[in-house]
Structure formats: structure tokens, C-alpha cells
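Chain A, query sequence.
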Amino acid sequence: MKRFLLWEFERGSIHYDVICGVILAFILSTPRWVFNDRPDFMRVKLTDPIVRQSRDDDGNTVFTVKLRTPPWSSDEINRQDAIKSLSGTLNMPVQPLKMEQVYDTTGALVAYSIWLER
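Chain A, predicted structure.
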């Protein structure tokens, strides 16, 4: 066991190949959700409301706004719809400080995370 932990095998030996195979099998067989390290404001579930409020690591308020527009809409139309949804929910005009796109596991755009000016 000590030789495996200290990696004392020559490259190209059968032991070296077995260890590399075990490491590759672990990496490729581990489900994606095990390493899901996205912050809360970048996660969107089907049961979430249209606008959800959370905090980032610095304590800033972040609003996650689900898109109501079709997925094939342009980025500018999606951004404007997200801002309009947020301002309708807050009942005030909104000037975003920063906006980030939120994608689901298939890579489809599903929401925007919006930071507001203080």
C-alpha cells in the first residue's frame, strides 16, 4: 500500500497503468452533481419563483430572474425582459450594476443573475 501512496512505480509498468486506470475511472464515473460548486444565485430550479433574492459571497443582494422569453430570442431581448420582470416585482425602476447569464445542465440559458446599484 505504501508503494501505491508514494507512487513508486516506473512509467509503463503494469502497476503504473492500473493506478492511472483507477484514477481515470474515478474521474469519468463520478456524477457531475458531486462537483457542483456554483453559488446559490447561479442555480435555478423549476420550482423557484420568477424572481428570487439571495446573497453572494461579499454579502451583496443578487436577484435571479427566470426568463419568460423563448430560448431562441436574442441576448438583448432576454436581458431587457429580465430587467422588466425585476422592476415589475420590485415596483421601481431598475439599473443593473452587473448581469450574469445562468445556464442549466444542458447549456441552455434559463435566467439572469442581476446585481443592483446600492
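The chain has a mean pLDDT of 80. The two ends are 57 Å apart (CA to CA).
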